[in-house]
């Protein structure tokens, strides 16, 4: 195999921080990106305006609403992979079918499922200011959620405890820090 600049470069690592609203995806994602020096993207920023308005009105998104959003996130991931760049992106990725879209032809994608108890989730969603996701949609997200299956790449962590403790658990679960 001829030597190329990319041959000497390690494979990129793409982590999709997933979970329901209020689980701490954005906080974890930002902290993980800062700790690793990787690029970060907020999955909510990929939603079309019509989907944001739908959620703001208290209507849950349908699969038809979600597919274009997932494709946009996937395109961002593909761009990072093609450049050999590691990155972190948040995305609820509630169902395996959604995660399959994010992984399709993207071999370096793995998931970090951030979980929190229902009461904590409800409190967080109710206390958020300026976010379009109303607390009334949390129950539909919980009903839709399919946890990571054993054959899906990734790990599950709890969002309980201090932000530093959560980050440490995330880094360990992803193999980015040794015990």
Notes on the protein architecture:
This protein has 179 residues and is an alpha/beta fold. The protein has one domain (12-173): Rossmann fold (3-Layer(aba) Sandwich). It is 42% helix and 13% strand. The chain is built from 7 helices and 5 strands; from the N terminus they run βαβααβαβααβα. The chain has helices at residues 25-36, 49-56, 63-82, 96-103, 118-127, 138-144, 163-173; strands spanning 14-18, 39-41, 87-90, 109-115, 154-158. The chain has a 5-stranded parallel β-sheet with strand order 2-3-1-4-5, sandwiched between helices. α3 (63-82) packs parallel to α4 (96-103). It is globular. The model is unreliable at 1-5 (pLDDT under 50).
List the helices and strands and how they pair.
Elements: E1 14-18, H1 25-36, E2 39-41, H2 49-56, H3 63-82, E3 87-90, H4 96-103, E4 109-115, H5 118-127, H6 138-144, E5 154-158, H7 163-173
Parallel strand pairs: 1-3, 1-4, 2-3, 4-5
Helix pairs in contact: 1-7, 3-4
Quick recap of the structure?
The protein has 179 residues and is an alpha/beta fold. The chain contains seven helices and five strands; from the N terminus they run βαβααβαβααβα. It has a single domain, classed as Rossmann fold (3-Layer(aba) Sandwich), CATH 3.40.50.300.
